[in-house]
TrEMBL record:
Name of this protein: Stage 0 sporulation protein A homolog
4-aspartylphosphate PTM positions: D51
Organism expressing this protein natively: Terrisporobacter mayombei
Domain of life: Bacteria
InterPro entries: CheY-like_superfamily (IPR011006), OmpR/PhoB-type_DNA-bd (IPR001867), Sig_transdc_resp-reg_C-effctor (IPR016032), Sig_transdc_resp-reg_receiver (IPR001789), WalR-like (IPR039420), WH-like_DNA-bd_sf (IPR036388)
Amino acid sequence: MDIFIIEDDKALSREISLTLSKWGYSACEVNDFENITNEVLQCNPKLILMDVNLPCYDGFYWCSQIRNFMKVPIIFISSRDNDMDIIMSINMGGDDYITKPFSPQILVAKIQAILRRTYSYNNDLKSEIIKFKDITLNIVDGKIYFKDENTELTKNELKIMKILMENQEKIVSRDEIIEELWDTDEFISENTLTVNVNRLRKKLDSIGINDFIETKKGQGYIIR
């Protein structure tokens, strides 16, 4: 599982990353403290380790921003150990709080416990974020992201993008998409699907995603 480390002490960040690697986790380390939310989207982690004292904005701010589009568990790590900071971390959406200095074994134990609680009891849990090349689809906020641009999708457009991105480089039949859109076996106009796809293509074009959805005549649609 990917763990995203948001820590401005490079030595500590590297130490944490190496510790996680020894335990079989894949770690991403933040590079741009002004665009943390974009880096979170790119990494699509299963858990975030967040320092409180950060350049530009503090960890509480970034936690609240991440909570706008992702439910990923967040553990705060900080040298600040007063009750108000711990309460603030919970109010901002944090899942745990570890004070520095801390034992690597305790950190790993807390990570394992939170990952078990969050993911192990739901094997059917689907990712809230689907990535394909430089394109990111966020199921929670209903937006598609490309580089520094994004656009909001309607309910139907989101469903179309979701099924296409879950079947990357595979043809998805029109019948499959219609069933996903309306969740019903009753007849739906083929023209309605065509209209939705055309509107979606225009939105994608507006943020620089050109010729993304390809029509396979008599078969359906494919992205690649």
